[in-house]
Amino acid sequence: MTGVEIFAADEQAAAPVDTDRWMRLARAVLEAEGVRGDAELSMLFVDEPAMSELNKRFLGKDGPTDVLAFPIDDDVVESGRSPDSGGPGPGSTPPEPQHVPTVLGDLVVCPAVANRNAPDHAGTYDDEIALLVVHGILHLLGMDHAEDDEARVMEQRERELLARFHT
Q1: Is 153 helix (H, G, I), strand (E, B) or coil?
Q2: Which tens digits make up the pLDDT trace of 117-161?
Q3: Given CA atoms 49, 55, 57, 58 in this order, what sign does their dihedral have?
Q4: Is 117 helix (H, G, I), strand (E, B) or coil?
Q5: Which of helix, strand or coil describes residue 49?
Q6: What is the CA radius of gyration of the chain?
Q7: Is the C-alpha dihedral spanning 70, 134, 119, 16 positive or negative?
Q8: β-pair partners for 109
């Protein structure tokens, strides 16, 4: 089977998570952003202690955050024979290329933080989760908001995708 594969797991009990709904949203966003062929994305919904640990370990920040995105860099595997890189010698038949899906990365969401932030941010809990899913996917696809110009572009794209796919 080809196409975008999305895995989602709810490993918390602070707030309800409809993983099927968020998987559908993720698929629609990935397709709208031009992700084609075999690709994989995992979404994990975690509690505050788990998110705090990830936030400290990977960003050096204390306490839980609402969303973390861990992109997988798609390193190109060298083929053929280059100096010291191995590969077949002269006269050999190259192996058939392996069909390996592109692993986009992992998206980790903390529903407890999302629930707390929703009234002052996106509005409802569901709106906040939708925003975090879209925001995280855009990060996985290379968008950022470190600079003001980047933030404007990313926020505009979030609004467009949410208006189109979040119901």
Answers
A1: helix
A2: 999 998 999 999 999 999 999 999 988 888 889 899 999 999 999
A3: positive
A4: helix
A5: helix
A6: 19
A7: negative
A8: 45, 67
Helix (H, G, I), strand (E, B) or coil at 147: coil
Q: Round to whole Å and give the CA distance between 112 and 8.
A: 17
Q: Is the dihedral of CA 102, 151, 69, 114 positive or negative?
A: negative
Spell 35-54 as b/e; 16+ CB within 10 A means b. beeebbbbbbbbbbebbbeb
CA atoms within 13 Å, Cβ hemisphere of 72: 13
- List the structure tokens of 88: 């077949």
Cβ within 8 Å of residue 65, ≥6 positions away? 51, 55, 59, 110, 113
State the pTM of this model. Answer: 0.81
Instruction: Residue 67: name the closest of 22, 21, 27 by CA.
Output: 22
Return the structure tokens found at 147: 């600079």
Dihedral of CA atoms 116, 120, 126, 128 in degrees, nearest 10, equals -90
Give tens-digit pLDDT for 51-92.
999 999 999 999 999 999 999 865 433 333 334 444 444 554
Cα separation of 82 and 86, whole Å?
7
Return d(Cα 104, Cα 40) in angstroms, integer: 6
